[in-house]
Every structure is written in C-alpha cells, then in structure tokens.
Amino acid sequence: MPHINHPNYQWALKAEDLAQVNDYRLIEIYNGHPTVHNFGGGDSPGVEAIWDELLSDGKRIYGIAADDAHYFQGEFAPRRVNPGRGWVVVRARSLDAEAIVQSLEDGLFYASTGVELADVVVTATRLSVQIKQRGNFKYTTTFIGNDAKVLKETGGNPAVFELDGPTSYVRARVRDSGGWFAWTQPVFVTQTSLPMSWKPIDSLNLALPSGVRVYAGANDALPLRAWYVRIDEPDPTIITRIVVSDDTTDNRETTSSFARDLGACVAVNGGYFTMNRTPAGHVGLLLADGVLWEPATRSVMRDTLRFEIARAAIGFTADDEIEFTWATTRDSTIYAWADPPAHRQGQLAEPLDYEHARAWGVRDAIGAGPALVMDGRIRVTSDEEVFFGTSIPQVHPRTAAGRTADGALILMVVDGRQAESRGVSLEELATLMLEVGAVEAINLDGGGSSTLVVNGVLVNRPQGRTEEREVMSALVTYCQ
Q: How far apart are the first and last CA of the chain?
C-alpha cells in the first residue's frame, strides 16, 4: 500500500509536491524519529498542516503514526530511535492481512502516540469520539475542517461534532494532559447537491440497441466521475439476469469475464462476498435462475448485541419485471418486507414477525444494501440494515441498481479513491440515482469491486486502474 513517509524529514516534501502525486492513500502525520520535525518550525508547516492542505484541495488520504524504530535492544532514550512512539489501531473484520489492509484503505483506523480511543462513530450527521480514560488524565478534542480551521474544541467525553457546517471534511485530534495524541481519520461531509454534466457516450451507444443507453457524468469541483446505463427492461429483446461465477477454483472472476463468457452487452459487479476466503462465499441473498446459492444474512453481531436483519435486495420476476424490497429467508423461502426492522446503534428493534411478510416469487435476486431510494424519495436505511460499525457508510467508489417509474433498469458506477474522482457517500449515491430518474434503488458492492463493462469495454477505472477485481456475482444484460 503506497504511503508517504515523514515528509518533514530533511524538510524534503511540501504540500505542493505531494499534490502532484497520485495513487497513495496514507501519509505519516507523526513519526517517532527524533529528527523528522513533525510539528514544523519557522516558516515550514507541520505535517498536520500539510495534511490539511492536501485534504482541502480534494485529496482523500488518511493519516498514520509510526515509531520508525531502528533500535529494538539496548538503551531506550529520547535520542535513540526506539519502538513504541507511534502506531495505528485498525478496525477490521478479521486479523488476516487482506482484511487489515482493506480497513487501512477504507480509513477504518486511528493514529496515536499514546491516547486510546474506545470508539469512533460516524453517522450521516455526526462524528463522535469516545476516549478511553487513563488514570486522572484530562483530554482536549479539536475538530478541524477545511484549511485547518478549528471548528470546535471540547473537553467532553465523548467528544461530538455535528456535521452541518460549510466544510468538505472534518477530523478530530485528541490531546491528553500528558502531551500524547490520537488522530481520527477525516470524515468527508455529504454534499446535498451533486450537479453532474451527464452526456451520452455515442461511441458506445452506436453499437447498442435503442433500449440501452450509456451516459457519463462529471463534477470537476468535487471532483467526481460517474457512469450509468438506462436499460429498457420491458423490451422483450433486452433481458437482465443475476449470474454467479463458474470458476471452481475460487468462485470469482472479473466483470469483464462475466460479460465475455456470457455474451452480455452490459455487466456490473453484484453483491458482497468474502474476499479473505478461497473459495469465496457470498454475503447476503443470492438467487440465480431459481437456484438459491446463498440465503439472506439472518443476523449480525455489533458489540454484544445480535441484530436480526432484513437487507435491501433487487429481484427480477419470470416476466423480467424489476422489484425492490428488504429480504429475509426462512426454510429456503425468500420473504419480502415493506420496511426493515427499526434498528439503531446499540438498540434492537422488535423481532421480525413473518405475519407481516410475503413470499417473494422472483427468478433472480441479489441482496447487498442498504436501500437508497424508495417510493421516489431518498431513504438510506443503513442503520436499519445494521451497517453501522462498518466502512459501508463512508465515501467510496460505488455501484448501484435502480428502477425508473416506467420500469427501466438503472445501473450506475461511481469511481473513487483517485485524484479525478473522490467517490460518494450513500446519501450522495442516492441523490445521483434520484437525479437520473430512479424511483427505487439499492447500493451494491463497491470499493475496488465497482466495475461497469459495456460491449466488452471497461468503462470506468476501478480505484484509478485498468485492472479489475474478481467478484463472485454480477448483473448482466443481454441485448438480443
């Protein structure tokens, strides 16, 4: 994973130098070596100030602390480069390397020189930092935004900041009364308006039937790059199916491989899957051509609570009509719910009552979530579907599927984690889907999986590259 080490060592790198570098995710904001000038001096800014300048200019990078240890034995002294002076604490789904690296890429960690955090909670409207109390130490938390502006300073625990001001990001620095620090990662504030200059891609549309149209959109100010395909699903010559990898080695293949092998004119990646297992397993509902490959996830644990869940899913009937619902399975039957359970972080909803559900008779279905748009309005049910405590609500590359009022299918991909496109939050993705005509929409697997292929052409740049991640499932459209 590329990252920038000690930019102030020998006063080597300035913000304007780092602004020209692409494809790195991490920068050292603290280094334990005694000669790296973490806090700057004279007319040279500290590394935190460099970080803020890059963030203010639209870079999406996370801050790490490291001890840069050279000497692990012998004397431990301030002028010797010993271990234990800086580190990161990562929230990962498991302790294997792939999961930890993914959490670092997603910003699910904090950096520290000694302050411990019990939790960092981010919602659509709030950043909350819970500090682990040590002895009789006192703590000051500073919330920082664009151009290193101090937005709030508090001695409270938890330290809470409402994400309602005119800033594109907010981060927190915690300092204790002994001079030790912890730094959270920046939270990128959702934009309520995302003007995109959508234009048809004629080079692709000329070779497609009139019922399939591809559009590209851009917003240079954010910056953002996105694409969507409008597919006239009621047209009997156009059929969309949910498909599963036939690679018997690891249950994965690229989206281009799905399209090529199946002769599909359009393909996007599908649902979540276990990247740290071989063969991969699907996470959530997966029904393809009437075969139930994976039931809906029944429940998830958060801290000490087990939440019974119903997550958003898209389905296709035998008549190729599109349906959206919150889905569960019981005894190999898929059930559709009008609403998900009303879970909140730390608070369980009432148990599911199947008297209020209906059997969902679809040919194909895939669950991911959360829901983005329902009944023609934004309805992001990330808490109800228990995605709190995960990286899903943060800013990422995205894939979404939706339906228009006249029954057309909308497939959208948004690039992220690159200089040309920062990615979007769930609320921003919902805004984009609503603006292109979706009356119902859900979030699919995103991040490095987000891929759109049209007539064999990789349309987007997954994480700024032309290489595709192998995935387990996909939505493919046949143009007969």
A: 43
Q: Give the model confidence (pLDDT) of 197-248 as tens digits.
A: 999 999 999 999 999 999 999 999 888 999 999 999 999 999 999 999 999 9
CATH of the domain at 160: 2.60.40.3080
Residues 117 and 224 in one domain: no
Quote the CA–CA distance of 337 and 359 in Å, as a whole number: 9
Domain hosting 245: range is: 199-479
**Is-contact 313 299, C-beta < 8 A?**
no
* pLDDT digit string, tens, across residues 75-124: 888 888 888 899 999 998 788 888 898 889 888 999 999 999 999 988 76
- Do 302 and 182 lie in one domain? The reply is no
153 in Cβ contact with 137 (< 8 Å): no
What is the token pair recorded at 7?
């930019």
Domain boundary among 140, 157, 188: 188
pTM of the predicted model over 0.85: no
